[in-house]
Design a protein that fits this description.
The complex is a heterodimer of chains A (about 300) and B (about 350).
Chain A (H helix, E strand, L loop, with lengths): L1 H31 L6 H21 L4 H28 L9 H21 L4 E2 L8 E4 L2 E4 H23 L1 H11 L1 H6 L4 H27 L1 E2 L3 H16 L4 H25 L9 H15 L14
Helix pairs in contact in A: 1-5, 1-8, 1-9, 1-10, 2-3, 2-4, 2-8, 2-9, 3-8, 5-6, 5-8, 6-8, 9-10, 9-11, 10-11
Chain B lengths: L2 H24 L2 H26 L8 H14 E2 L4 E2 L2 H23 L4 H21 L13 E2 L5 E2 L2 E2 L4 E3 L2 E3 L1 H25 L1 H11 L1 H6 L4 H27 L1 E2 L6 H14 L4 H17 L3 H9 L6 H19 L8 H10 L1
Antiparallel strand pairs in B: 1-2, 3-8, 4-5, 6-7
Helix pairs in contact in B: 1-2, 2-6, 2-9, 2-10, 2-11, 3-4, 3-5, 3-9, 4-9, 6-7, 7-9, 10-11
The chains are: A mainly alpha (about 300), B mainly alpha (about 350).
């Protein structure tokens, strides 16, 4: 039972991060039906910017709390600009192109971002400055570190704000309208170009926060860190039903928990034949299983075939 | 066929046959090796083209079939289990095994639409790679991350490809032998693709690609046809895998990452989905370009007198930028299929 609860906490932490990144994929997909392959690398840029900013700011003798807040803000700003630039350069010119063309530009941009990061920050792993207190609370044998608590709470807060934004504000209504039918939304006076750009900006800001979280959680940052994370987050978005915002949140949390449980239990379940290095296999098998029975993801609406 | 196009065809044939010798003489072994790999990528891209270009199914885990073929050859023709089966058994076996995996992957998932299918294929590719990476315990099958080495070289009847032959004073080393073997394979693959495209099956695939509902209404068994596309594409992957293992003499899970799948997809889309000439061009271009860009370090030294930017970073950076630019300039691919091009320009 202790292992179960401990893995649940670890899974929820990881899942919160997946969920934040998955939101970026799902929002862009909802509006443009496009897999933004460069999104994982935006997360990486967010992490690396925050990492550098933190090193500089603490070097100036700023208190850790303020330095961290400023670093996160800087990462968010940089990623927002990056997201807007990606949309402008790689996706807007191809909006009427065949469906796979933007996929290739996205892959190209992903390579470009990774190599630029390698040029700026080098190829080696960089450690994240220890600004957060390393305390932990122990409850019935379950250890929750302060970083874990912070990640879960902050992610929940951001997701709540996003849901309010999408469901309750005029901007959110415009976003939903654009997702449903861009042509009609435009006729109703929605500036769809601006809404699409804004969606990219929003997703990138969330990605920046997620990037800082990952770097802080694992204590490292590297120019390739966005790849696997992006892959997992995209999987999470599909698991929940791509294009569906609550679905991405659910999918993220679920994938995180499934992975953690896999890491904790595969060894016992298979009598020691397979170890925790199969946790990704486990996660993907769950994905395939879910999609076989729910072809549109857990919360995705059944797409009607247009005749 | 008029005299002019006949002349062009003969010219192209002579060029393709003379290319490895000229490259060997002018640029050395390394570049002939790059040509060999370019041909291997052509084979892979033609296989993926069946799935993506003909049947319109987005497959992001294609490299899994390549891996199955490669490991099939590697395990049955190496000291790993002390088996040394001949090529003529192992290539069909690898192809069949890959096709089985294609059906295995396709059966539960082909009801999925577009991008859901893409993520499932991606997951499948990762699953295969993780298994290859970890199946060294409890029983050592794949030798884990170290991979399988000392794989038997390719022998085609009396033709020992690892030997250097001398014909009329011209030296024919391993890399040129391989070039001709791969060339034959590519020629067969092109012919097969052409025949498939115009066949009843090929036309059925096109119908499914354009409108699945309409195709099903016309009485096509869409599920079986899609499975066939998967299996057929996988077969190409399996054969290329066997050839790859025999040529390299070594396989490890590192050769079968998602990036590899993505790169093959880029070749298909960038060259022009569904068009054989386009796919061949895309594969050659994207496999030679990164190697050609290795020269950037030397170019920097020549221009500025010293190396300013790490050439290995710069190489990939330029490659990424080239990918984006090519796609922006020709969204329908470099040599698009005629039907697709018409479609694209009509919708504008």
């Amino acid at each position: 039972m202790d292992i179960f609860l401990q893995q649940l906490v670890n899974g929820l932490t990881l899942g919160s991060i997946y969920a934040l990144v998955a939101l970026g994929y799902t929002m862009v997909y909802g509006i443009m039906e496009l897999i933004n392959f460069a999104h994982g690398d935006v997360v990486m840029v967010g992490a690396m910017v925050a990492l550098t900013a933190l090193q500089v700011l603490t070097g100036w003798g700023l208190p850790p709390g303020i330095a961290l807040a400023m670093a996160v803000a800087m990462a968010m700003a940089v990623c927002m600009v990056l997201g807007l630039a990606i949309e402008r350069v790689a996706y807007r010119p191809l909006r009427r192109a065949p469906k796979l063309a933007p996929l290739i530009t996205a892959i190209g941009l992903s390579i470009v971002l990774q190599q630029l990061a390698a040029l700026i920050w080098g190829r080696s792993y960089r450690s994240f400055p220890a600004v957060l207190p390393a305390d932990s609370v122990s409850w019935h044998g379950v250890i929750i570190t302060s970083i874990q608590a912070l990640i879960i709470v902050l992610a929940a807060l951001l997701m709540a704000v996003l849901l309010l934004l999408v469901k309750r504000t005029a901007l959110g209504r415009a976003m939903r309208a654009t997702a449903q039918n861009p042509g009609v939304a435009q006729l109703m006076g929605v500036n769809t170009d601006r809404i699409i750009a804004l969606t990219f900006a929003l997703g990138s800001v969330l990605a920046a926060v997620a990037g800082v979280m990952v770097a802080a959680y694992y204590n490292v940052g590297n120019y390739t860190m966005g790849f696997m994370l992006g892959l997992k987050a995209f999987t999470a978005a599909v698991l929940g039903g791509i294009g569906n915002i609550p679905g991405a949140m659910l999918g993220g949390l679920l994938l995180g928990v499934v992975e953690a449980m896999g890491a904790g239990y595969i060894g016992d379940l298979t009598g020691g034949y397979f170890g925790s290095n199969y946790k990704d296999v486990f996660a993907f098998l769950v994905l395939i299983g879910v999609l076989v029975f729910h072809p549109n993801g857990l919360l995705g609406s059944r797409a009607r075939e247009k005749v | 066929m008029n005299a002019r196009s006949r002349f062009i065809n003969w010219g192209a044939a002579v060029l393709v046959l003379a290319l490895p010798f000229a490259t060997h003489a002018l640029l050395g072994q390394g570049w002939v090796r790059i040509l060999d790999f370019a041909l291997l990528y052509v084979l892979l891209a033609l296989g993926l083209n069946i799935v993506v270009g003909y049947a319109g199914l987005l497959d992001l885990g294609y490299v899994a079939f390549f891996a199955v073929g490669a490991y099939c050859y590697a395990l049955f023709a190496s000291p790993q289990f002390d088996l040394h089966w001949p090529l003529w058994v192992l290539l069909p076996m690898g192809a069949l095994l890959a096709a089985c995996f294609g059906v295995l992957l396709g059966t539960p998932t082909l009801g999925l639409r577009g991008d859901y299918l893409a993520i499932v294929t991606l997951g499948f590719g990762e699953i295969i790679r993780i298994f290859l990476n970890n199946l060294n315990a409890p029983v050592n099958i794949t030798n884990g991350p170290q991979g399988v080495s000392l794989i038997d070289p390719l022998h085609v009847g009396p033709w020992f490809l690892e030997k250097t032959y001398h014909v009329g004073g011209i030296e024919i080393p391993l890399v040129i032998n391989i070039y001709f073997l791969f060339l034959v394979a590519v020629g067969l693959a092109i012919r097969l693709s052409q025949r498939l495209e115009g066949s009843r099956i090929g036309r059925a695939w096109a119908a499914i690609r354009e409108d699945e509902l309409a195709a099903a209404s016309m009485g096509l068994n869409t599920r079986n046809l899609k499975l066939l596309a998967f299996a057929m594409g996988a077969t190409f992957g399996g054969v290329s895998g066997g050839l790859f293992a025999g040529f390299q003499g070594f396989v490890s899970p590192e050769s079968f990452t998602l990036q590899e799948s993505v790169m093959i997809l880029c070749m298909v889309v960038l060259g022009g989905m569904g068009n054989i000439a386009g796919v061949v061009l895309g594969a050659v271009l994207l496999s030679v370009l990164p190697e050609a860009l290795r020269g950037l370090g030397g170019l920097q030294e020549f221009l500025f007198g010293k190396v300013w930017v790490d050439p290995s970073n710069l190489r990939l950076l330029v490659f990424g930028i080239a990918l984006v630019l090519m796609m922006l300039l020709r969204p329908e691919g470099l040599l698009p299929a005629r039907a697709r091009q018409r479609e694209f320009h009509e919708s504008q």
